[in-house]
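Sample intake sheet
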Amino acid sequence: MATLSPGSDEAKRIDAALQHWRQGDLALEESWFVHVGDPGAPLTDAAAEAADGDLQALTSEVRGLIVVTQTCDIVRGCVDRPYVEIAPLVQVSEDELQMVKRGRRPAYATLPSLEADRLVADLDRVMTVEKSIVITRSRSATRRSASRLGRVA
């Protein structure tokens, strides 16, 4: 199967759906994150638990996903710009949350709407997905006024 052409109905459908997505939007029902690991030299629990010794895609459980791609790139045509970067949401302790909010944990970013649940974006882990996957997920818009995401992507 060939990739979509810019004028195809499917590309137009994807592009139209992406017009509503923004940096900082959430997919809270998603509980998976994928990274490549080496079970032969494991640096994460997911790699240590893998059965095979070769490099492989590993899945870990997270509390949701957040879009970190800049909005201007999300809304560009899917044929020319097929990818979106997303980061996992993780739960931290109240002390860690306060450190994140004070800028003492730069690998994490906060969003006001997630603070009650102590969820933060883990910016050390970012994965790439195709835009056609993004539009199939339930989008939760967030208030981004206190977010550091604009400085990251």
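Comment: The mean pLDDT is 90. The first strand starts at residue 26 and ends at 27.
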